[in-house]
Amino acid sequence: MKRMQFDEITLSVFPDRFEMGAVAAQEAAEYILDLLKQKQIIRCIFAAAPSQSDFLNRLFSDKRIDFSRIEVFHMDEYIGLPSDDPRSFQSFLKGYFDRVNFKAVHYINGMAKDLLEECERYGKQLISEKVDIVFMGIGENGHIAFNDPPVADFNDSKIMKPVELDLTCRNQQVHDGCFKTLDEVPKMALTLTIPTLISADKHFCIVPTKAKAQALSNTILGEITEKCPATALRNKPGVMMYVDEPCFSILEEKLKKL
Prior knowledge:
Elements: E1 2-6, E2 9-14, H1 17-36, E3 42-46, H2 53-59, E4 70-74, E5 76-78, H3 89-97, E6 104-106, H4 115-127, E7 133-136, E8 160-164, H5 167-175, E9 188-192, H6 194-198, E10 202-207, H7 213-221, E11 239-244, H8 245-257
Parallel strand pairs: 2-11, 3-4, 3-7, 4-6, 7-10, 10-11
Antiparallel strand pairs: 1-2, 5-9, 8-9
């Protein structure tokens, strides 16, 4: 493992995504256990994506954690996919969440008739108390949640909003094997905004595979701008980022030239 600091981000690099997920889960679990000594209930937001699978498998296998003292949310959902569709984010996370006994689980309803009303409903639940931890990834276009560059706003006044997904984001869903063709990928989604995500106290960001290499390089070395939404993490104290060697490849070459 290699560990280095970039602004507020602590970046850890691992030979493969299996080791990456194992260490990320171990360090996240230690943080949760320490926090549960200080608070009766903690609140967490989880990303739903294949990039998170190695991490989630290990975290939800940790018998030391009293999950009944944890309340959970997710950060985005496709508009128009039923909750029981295996391609929905609710369905993805349910496969992990159902392994443990959470205090409460809050899902975004992507089938809501009134999307703005759903944003208000979910947003009120989310901000009713402080969010302690966000477990997240970075998209191929540098998005966090579904805040793609065209809709990302570091100063967004909304808690959650409907967005149109850009082409890079939709193609990623095909690359990840979540959909067979681009035509199957929904064009709209509901997402927590960047200020909502950043407002949590702690962030664990898990980013494997070569497909994310350019996004990682842009996040770490690029200008802090909505053109790469994940750069917002550079100003947030205590961000822990975990990547594998393929993801680190472009950044590594650029660092050698500095």
